[in-house]
Design brief:
single chain, about 450 residues, alpha/beta, Aspartate Aminotransferase, domain 1, Aspartate Aminotransferase, domain 2, 2 domains, seven-stranded mixed beta sheet, four-stranded mixed beta sheet, about 40% helix, binds pyridoxal-5'-phosphate
Length: about 450
């Protein structure tokens, strides 16, 4: 690093002290990386380093860094119309075009989209819409939301309450009422009770039915689930889980909200994670991959049945919900163009092929005594770090050390508790996949880790 680079970085870090960063603790932000550029799957730092971003930012930069089309689209739209209100009585061209493009795209019954600026807003919108739906049908007691442990649904007051990770909750209590959690369908470490002969999928689905019955079906509005749980540890459910969940929710009139904020737009190799598991949601929330992070955009798709209630049900109460930036023209224009790129470059297909190569490479690392499990779909993968393979006890500290050492060697991963997540941009090629495995293998082999 040159003296000039050092000085510039130091000056910027001084200014950065004036910023409160997400999920902040000062001890963890003493020497942040200052990122000033990116190309393909690589980040560039002000001190001259090139880092392979195995996390595609926050699981979102699907078309990779340095795309030259999306900035032009955003600039052209901003020159023409930077902003207009999308509240009732007005609309704009890109948001209408994108809503039409998304109609029936994920599922034939999801034909109506509400736009937000991100995932938490999308989930809050879904909770309110589920409650509104039952309210308009006269079932005003039906307001509870069932979520799973290890779920991550975001950071607003309601999304935090739906999240099933205590680390996000304890310092912000009390949690909003009306949210409860059941065990995650984790085949590697199921934490609920299992009856003889039951599969994990059956036991986890039974936990849902028991929760609905315990609370009273007349009080439960919706069940929310990520098709693959991301931040909670890249938990891939068994194939029998979601069909059972759908049947249970149908039996008790409970809506299903699929949180596809990570799993949407090709990340798992399917366009949407719910498609992988044959899950038909009533509401589908998305964000992240819709613009590959080039601008802020999220949204919620509602089923035709919910649409009909909002449009047709008797009653005078409007659906009093919306954000200043709902249907932002530039964000929606970028969303449309991003969708075209994902399609034209067949990036979901690339996620399947590269994901298999990545998992094959990561699976070869199972020989290390502290690697308990390798799992994933497409380019959403996790490597579970344990104290030993027999007890499967999570080793969060070791996972953190591995992530730090990998970064020092030029690979960015994120330890979500004791699981190392690998979700690189979907444009990744074979050499770049092999680089991930090579760097991770060299970290595992290093004295700091293998002698620990
Ligand atoms: C599954 C899931 N839902 C919701 C969110 C929240 O999205 P945002 O940070 O855009 O509010 C995230 C963010 O990582 C997520 O992974």
């Amino acid at each position: 690093m040159s003296q000039l680079q050092q000085d510039l970085t130091a000056a910027l870090l001084e200014k950065d002290q004036r910023q409160l960063h997400p999920v902040f603790h000062p001890s963890k932000h003493r020497t942040p990386l200052v990122i000033e550029g990116g190309d393909r799957v690589y980040l560039h730092t002000t001190d001259g380093r090139r880092i392979l971003d195995g996390m595609a930012g926050l699981w979102n930069v699907n078309v990779g860094y340095g795309n030259q089309v999306l900035p032009d689209i955003a600039a052209a739209q901003m020159r023409k119309l930077a902003y207009t209100s999308n509240f009732v009585g007005m609309t704009n061209v890109p948001s209408s075009e994108l809503a039409a493009r998304l109609a029936g795209f994920a599922h034939p019954t999801l034909n109506t989209t509400f736009f937000t600026s991100g995932g938490s807003e999308s989930n809050d919108s879904a909770f309110k819409t589920a409650r509104y739906y039952w309210f308009r049908l006269g079932k005003t007691e039906k307001f509870k939301i069932i979520a799973r442990k290890y779920a991550y649904h975001g950071i607003t007051v309601a999304a935090t309450a739906a999240t099933g990770i205590a680390g996000y909750q304890t310092m912000f209590g009390p949690m909003a009422p009306g949210f409860l959690h059941i065990p995650a369908p984790n085949p590697y470490r199921y934490e609920g009770d299992m009856q003889p002969g039951e599969t994990v999928g059956q036991a986890a689905a039974r936990a849902l039915e028991e929760a609905i019955l315990r609370e009273g079906p007349e009080t439960v509005a919706a069940f929310i689930a990520e098709p693959i749980q991301g931040v909670g540890g890249v938990i891939v459910p068994p194939d029998d889980y979601f069909p059972l969940v759908r049947a249970i929710c149908d039996k008790y009139d409970v809506l299903i909200i699929a949180d596809e904020v990570i799993t949407g737009f090709g990340r798992t190799g399917a366009w949407f994670g719910s498609q992988l598991f044959g899950l038909r949601p009533d509401i589908l929330d998305f964000a992240k991959g819709i613009t590959s992070g080039y601008l802020q955009l999220g949204g919620m798709q509602i089923s035709d049945a919910i649409r009909e209630v909002i449009w047709e049900a008797p009653g005078t109460e409007s659906w009093m919900h919306g954000f200043t930036y709902s249907g932002h023209p530039a964000a929606c224009a970028v969303g449309l163009a991003n969708l075209e790129i994902l399609e034209r470059e067949r990036l979901p297909e690339n996620a399947v092929v590269m994901g298999e190569r990545l998992r094959a490479g990561l699976t070869s690392l199972l020989e290390f005594p502290f690697v308990g499990d390798v799992r994933g779909r497409g380019l959403l993968n996790g490597v579970e770090i344990v104290k030993d393979k027999e007890s499967r006890t999570p080793d969060v500290a070791m996972a953190g050390r591995i992530a730090d050492l990998a970064l020092a060697k030029g690979l960015r991963t994120r330890n979500v508790a004791n699981v190392l997540a690998f979700a690189p941009p979907l444009i990744i090629n074979e050499d770049e996949v092999d680089e991930i495995v090579r760097i991770l293998g060299s970290v595992f082999d290093s004295p700091e880790i293998s002698a620990a």
